[in-house]
Amino acid sequence: MPVTAQFARAYRITFNALTARSPLITRVPLPATSVRRLYSTDRLAENMTDSNLSIDRAALDSLVLKRFFYAQSFSIYNGVAGLYDFGPTGAALQQNLISLWRQHFVIEEDMLEVDCSIMTPAEVLKTSGHVEKFADWMCKDTKDGSVMRADHLVEAVLEARLEGDILARKMAGVSISSEAGPSAAAKPDAKKNKKKGGPIAATKLENSVIEEFKFILAQIDNYDGQGLADLITKYDIRNPDTGNPVTAPAMFNLMFESSIGPSGNLKGYLRPETAQGQFVNFSRLLEFNNQKMPFASAMVGRSFRNEIAPRQGLLRVREFTMAEVEHYVDPENKDHPRFSEVAHIELPLLPSQVQLEGKSTPIMMRIGDAVASGTVDNQTLGYFLARIYLYLMAVGIKHELLRFRQHLPNEMAHYATDCWDAEIKTSHGWIECVGCADRSAYDLTKHATYTKEKLCVRESYPEPLVTVKLVCETNSKVFGPKLKRAAKPVEEYLKLLPETDLTAIQSKLSKDGKATVVLSGTAADGEYEITPDMVTIETRTITEHVREYTPNVIEPSFGIGRILYSLLEHSFNVRAGDEQRSFFSFKPAVAPFKCLVLPLSGHASFAKPLQDVARRLRAGGVPARVDDAASASIGRRYARNDELGTPFAITVDFQTADDGTVTLRERDTTKQIRASTDEIVELVKCLVHGSTTWDNVLSKHPLVNTSSSDNMD
Amino acid sequence: MPVTAQFARAYRITFNALTARSPLITRVPLPATSVRRLYSTDRLAENMTDSNLSIDRAALDSLVLKRFFYAQSFSIYNGVAGLYDFGPTGAALQQNLISLWRQHFVIEEDMLEVDCSIMTPAEVLKTSGHVEKFADWMCKDTKDGSVMRADHLVEAVLEARLEGDILARKMAGVSISSEAGPSAAAKPDAKKNKKKGGPIAATKLENSVIEEFKFILAQIDNYDGQGLADLITKYDIRNPDTGNPVTAPAMFNLMFESSIGPSGNLKGYLRPETAQGQFVNFSRLLEFNNQKMPFASAMVGRSFRNEIAPRQGLLRVREFTMAEVEHYVDPENKDHPRFSEVAHIELPLLPSQVQLEGKSTPIMMRIGDAVASGTVDNQTLGYFLARIYLYLMAVGIKHELLRFRQHLPNEMAHYATDCWDAEIKTSHGWIECVGCADRSAYDLTKHATYTKEKLCVRESYPEPLVTVKLVCETNSKVFGPKLKRAAKPVEEYLKLLPETDLTAIQSKLSKDGKATVVLSGTAADGEYEITPDMVTIETRTITEHVREYTPNVIEPSFGIGRILYSLLEHSFNVRAGDEQRSFFSFKPAVAPFKCLVLPLSGHASFAKPLQDVARRLRAGGVPARVDDAASASIGRRYARNDELGTPFAITVDFQTADDGTVTLRERDTTKQIRASTDEIVELVKCLVHGSTTWDNVLSKHPLVNTSSSDNMD
Fold this sequence. Notes:
Largest sheet of chain A: 9 strands, mixed
Number of strands of chain A: 28
Helix content of chain A: 25-40%
Family (chains A, B): Belongs to the class-II aminoacyl-tRNA synthetase family.
Radius of gyration of chain A: 31 Å
Oligomer: homodimer
Catalytic activity (chains A, B): 2 ATP + H(+) = P(1),P(4)-bis(5'-adenosyl) tetraphosphate + diphosphate
Strand order of the largest sheet of chain A: 3-10-11-21-16-15-14-12-13
Number of domains of chain A: 4
CATH topology of the largest domain in chain A: BirA Bifunctional Protein, domain 2
CATH class of the largest domain in chain A: Alpha Beta
Largest interface: A-B, 88 and 88 residues
Strand content of chain A: 15-25%
Structural class of chain A: alpha+beta
GO molecular function, one term (chains A, B): transferase activity
CATH superfamily of the largest domain in chain A: Bira Bifunctional Protein, Domain 2
Low-confidence stretches of chain A: 1-52, 176-195
Keywords (chains A, B): Aminoacyl-tRNA synthetase, ATP-binding, Cytoplasm, Ligase, Nucleotide-binding, Protein biosynthesis, Transferase
Distance between the termini of chain A: 76 Å
Pfam families (chains A, B): HGTP_anticodon
């Protein structure tokens, strides 16, 4: 296949605009394009943080563990870093996020959901480039052998030195000018790395050194192994825990490796993303879609990355659930048939141009305008940004803590033509939770070239395409015998030659009676003489009925664990005036348990109506949880189920036996109403399925006096 | 912990009743307990097959591939044995099986669903016994190095020889007596292995040899490595493909191995079952359940087994989705609170006693009676058998092709106290699709002992338990100084000593003024002298308020892929009189697509109402598929969507523009009705959610004349 303009664009190494603008460019090692960046969009957007959320993270973490949302895996075996188990609450929350995702994307968009193997033969991931390049740089302590990520090491040590400088200047009473002074704001969440950077020594730095450090930290993701090695040497960076020197950074592939079958000869990796499984099935999927374009495949499943340094709970883990869409589109027409449905939606966009101007406040822009103005590359990308936005709003992410950040030119995978991340703000900073990239034809072309299987679309032209073209045909009787083994490569070369070159050969043949063809990079490199009897070069009228092209791929890729963690932070609340009572204000659609069923007390007469209510809810598809622990007061039981984020509670009390009524309590308002069991069960079903709201219920039912029932004593 | 009676029972090596009864016991190597059996319930129940189903498997396989239910993974890379990708139809079918499973088990039974890590550190799987014993025996061809499962090899070669004998006798015109003749019926589906056993040589065997072979084949799962090695030597078994000798069988662990983290020092395995992740979280789960027993945890997820010889499509694969329940129960009371709800249900049971009598016809028995008579060990096991039955009926497994087979005493995992498999009959024979085992306290005890973390239940007695007991207390002032380092082990030994032994020591001390204690298997083995000043042995009244016990675990374990494959076979149909037209008669609840939406033809006016109908269905949670390919006739489009098993089809035609009506077609009957779009959309929702039936719809709406619409031309 000749290199098309579109393909060349995907391979283009984009000039680093940010670096080019920096006045410091000559003073520090110039960052090369990072290795991992080329193949991964999985980056914590830490350095984009501009302020911290006011959340009591210790209280949240403790509640997460206490109510078993998640916990480190194998904790009775002292746990394994980067592996987490979801408990009943977390697993249900995750499952609900996935169900809504399926409804929102797969069903409503009629995507072809597939479920492919996790274990992947090395050949596939060699072709996709992961074996060579899906890696981070790693250093070893030269004495104790402990291992660290090279970029994290440099980052931590330089940050510690900057902090030491602040300390030294404070102690010396030097005022800190905004121009030359050290900037803790350059890395506002630097404090979480403090421990790793070693003890802070109060050592004043030269102003020029401070500038260097600041520049390096802002660019830390861009250094390759040699770049990091140079920094380590230049600044004598050592393992802060031991003071020992470290080895030069070596590449550490982030895929878990295994071996398939009993012979041990077939190397396999656990997939680092679900995308490749979809790409290798492209032809079957196109066939399944009756050859119609555009269309999308989708997959929800586990992926694996053997992180050198997992951290921050669910935010950088070794095993995670992701949901990915691969939308296949004609590279010459990236319009989306349903774009008009979303064009009016306003999104908080942070385009690369705005970032390059040093700003970090998103701009509210209608997605229709963003595509029209070229801020977002095409309709399909824009359509998905809007759909991602609607999904995140539907699950309960806070609007004001969400932004869509465009990748900087130097930040994109080399094959990507445009890429936007949905970033959600948490107490850890802005977290990349959904990536939405235009992967161009990169993957399909790679797999097709390697396997020699066509992964392309054949479309009939509405009218046959007639072109007039200079073509070269060989005279097999002379051509073959003269060129022997080189005949085939030379013929292929001639067939692919641009028209101008062919014209040159044509005129050479008629002028000199011969022409020379030079092959290189083939199995038959060399110079070959062509004579007029061997070829016919002439203008032909060619009628094409079918157009063949490799689709481009627009890929929205969701990190379910990161969305889940962000949602926990955004839903975490404490009762006004009683900070001990925390609760999660999950929407009913995502809440792990929809309805709590409980008796007023341990009185024996409550058991039967209680089980009856629970059974009716469950049979109606409403996950209900009974809390009949007689030892806990009703208030305490309400409180501990508020901690699970259960939105509704039905209470059986003494009146139930008399008149068959029960009470219904809502979590956020703690208000209660009373009605017949039948009516309350139906109401809960409607509330959970979203066909009514609590406000609506309150407008039709009088409040019950609950002055004492929410008392925890 | 002292070895309790219950625990001892779990460890008991059950005497092999079948072997003991065989008159051939002295003539062939006695099978030892197989290795894999101890840890795996994943066995194809091939040798239980008594007849084949009449199904055109080639037609089924071709439809499965054509409509992308599943296909071998990475097929453009020539595929990997034992790995499969589910396409849009298969993935949706699988997802629906899982959704129904969640509704049926997790929600209706209020189970605690968790989602744990696949990557598991070696330590955990060493403790559970998998590292040592989750293995098959493997032979290598001594010349070409090809690898085969030892039991499969022996099986294939002996079967080929038996077939050769039949051939020889036929050629010799010898009549085959039922007593001494070779029995193809001993292995009715032997033919599928024919190729593997090598070419059939017409060689007559001695009658005694035939008996030996038959006996060995019936017992093939029971041979260990040495047993298989002996068979290979004795019968000169070679690789049938090459005629070369094979190596002695070596153990091949079936877990995929990897390494966690950058240091390479932490070995990990991909989990072979989801159970261990649940067990190690037992304490958190009990806490989450407010300490109440009994309760169950559950998990749906991927597991991995690096099979030596994957085969038969989805039936023996290397990566599979399973759904497992771990129900924790008091070992002294295995009653189930909801047993009365299922006691009346009749199940097709095949108890071990019936199998030992050589019969294979299940007995229809009410589960209440089966538990009362001791056929099924306890109520909880019986409750789950009934619930499994209801689930399999609900998804569409045919009642007459289902049986519950009890494990034979020699077939159970050594820790299991009772085990039943739900086996589904397919054209491959009876397939174990759900295992339901009482795992006793095995796993929790193992993990607790190794980690020294308590994995047990503490329950207050309703009344304090008062016991009178002989106890031994040490006098620390004398005991320690005298015994020094041995003091602690000797003290522990004395504390755990049964009352009779303690009485003996007491009388020795008073008689001889000393007694000797012998320790073995401790860190301080040896003989130690005890004198009366060192200990006080006397009767005490002990009041216990809390009972501490390790729960037993009842485990229903579902192979989703196997159920899915069985369902494909049970749902596969051809139209009477037109065998080219096949379809899947899936129930709406499991069907991959619920409703097809299509225009009568490619007429432009159909586009808008078509999209309108599709959008309304999808927004209502009904996965709808549009088939508007103008090139295919309406009949052809009905037919190809019947192949997907889509139960309903809404057709937009010329009348739609006039009066807003559309037609609704049902797949199995191919009958159609007509009504307004609003009404039809609502009807489809009701049909899909199960709130009405097609018969009911037909009783209220007149049929539309469809004489031509189901014509494929």
